[in-house]
Amino acid sequence: MKVMKFGGTSVGKPERMHQVAQLVTADAEPKIVVLSALSGTTNALVAIGDAIAAGNRTGAKNKIEELEAHYANFIKQLVEQEECVAKATAITREHFEFLDIILRISFSDALYKDILAQGELLSTKLFSVYLQEKGIDHLLLPALEFMSIDVNEEPELPAIKYKLNKLLQQHSDKKLFITQGYICRNARGEVDNLKRGGSDYTASLIAAAINASVCEIWTDIDGMHNNDPRVVNKTVPISQLSFDEAAELAYFGAKILHPTCIWPAQHSNVPVKLLNTMQPQAAGTTIAEDAQSTGVKAVAAKDGIIAIKIKSSRMLLAYGFLRKVFEVFEKYRTPIDMITTSEVAVSLTIDTDAHLPEIIKELEPFGSVEAEDNLTIVSVVGNEIAETPEVLKKLFDAISTIPVRMVSYGGSRHNISLLIGSEYKKEALQLINSGVFGL
Ligand SMILES: Nc1ncnc2c1ncn2[C@@H]1O[C@H](COP(=O)(O)OP(=O)(O)O)[C@@H](O)[C@H]1O
Ligand SMILES: N[C@@H](CC(=O)OP(=O)(O)O)C(=O)O
């Protein structure tokens, strides 16, 4: 059995959904198809939730109406038969009625998550209606019945495995299952999600849970490119990546993959393929354990980074000092991305300001604390990169005009990371493209 995940761009237009139907019926292998919300929908739902949270009910109502109109148009081109048009219309009405009700009741965090879940519920149900119209046998598997996260918001792989396999056994006559990406239940049993872009994570968790033959991530580009195609002009697809390389690229900003979506597939040794819905014949990228070729593969950039510097001539070299610093970040569940130390200071980076004031306050007894935002981590990734001759020289020659704030080298065998001001990101990625990749 294989997993095929189609992102928002692959289901965002009726004709693309038609194409998805062709791709999922192209071979006889049983499959679980994971769909994201239509592109733009989750952003619109976030805007609706934010407007309601801010007490701007008129603004929220206008956004809901705009989104409903978008779905009304979508349906017109998705299905033709009167009966299917009626079904699709009833489905959208039901979900927009839910949003209308939320406008009238008191708002909570749990309701916000419910709002965000509507996108994937809509896309899968509408796709199911289209499959019905085409007479394609399938079953809609509700993700909320098997996809769960624990109190620390981590997916519960053993529970997911148990529940999903049980559901599949109950429907062993079926060959095609459709389910929602992104959405799940949390430890309180409420509707929750796997964070933005989380449908890739859903696909990888499902692939691990069923020990799939392959986890295919279908998107709007022919695989992982060597650089961010939204930022630089000339990029090329990479045919093979190891799990570690792909995980580093996803974590350090390659938007094509959700930051943590590699580990489940790696855990079960399921190869992941990145493929293009608009160009299905393109080779794409294969991510697998045995893709071990060495050398520089790609560069990615992660924005929204904050650097914190703690200066303390007294305490820094005392043992136990770093532990005390790390405990503050642990307390606020804020991961540290990069860290460097010197005789008198320790500098580290985080990617969220959610608890910044509390963190700074608790660090102040250790020394003087400075925080700086608007920074970007640029990560150059490739197996055994540190042992690859010339890489460091080429990299630093290429970016000699860019002020570099921090460097991380040696922490992983697959990664060299640089911290720069976000205003230099585009220039740095372009310089690395020509200086390191020769493009
Ligand atoms: N290194 C990269 N390789 C390929 N695509 C990238 C890379 N970095 C950023 N992207 C962007 O990721 C996009 C695909 O991811 P996403 O928008 O999340 O797709 P989907 O809607 O299918 O989930 C591409 O259109 C591309 O612009
Ligand atoms: N719809 C969700 C989940 C997702 O993964 O979407 P996409 O596959 O289009 O990146 C989001 O926008 O965050």
UniProtKB/TrEMBL annotation:
Pfam families: AA_kinase, ACT_9. It catalyses: L-aspartate + ATP = 4-phospho-L-aspartate + ADP. It is an enzyme of class 2 (transferase). Residues 2-276 form the Aspartate/glutamate/uridylate kinase domain. ATP binds at K5, F6, G7, G8, T219, D220, R230. Keywords: Amino-acid biosynthesis, ATP-binding, Coiled coil, Kinase, Nucleotide-binding, Transferase. Its EC number is 2.7.2.4. One of its GO terms (biological process) is homoserine biosynthetic process. Residues 57-84 form a coiled coil. GO terms for molecular function: aspartate kinase activity; ATP binding. One of its GO terms (cellular component) is cytosol. Substrate binds at T42, E120. InterPro entries: AceGlu_kinase-like_sf, ACT-like_dom_sf, ACT_Aspartokinase, Asp/Glu/Uridylate_kinase, Asp_kin_monofn, Asp_kinase, AsparK_Bifunc_asparK/hSer_DH, Aspartate_kinase_CS. Belongs to the aspartokinase family. This is Aspartokinase. The lineage of its organism: Bacteria, Pseudomonadati, Bacteroidota, Chitinophagia, Chitinophagales.
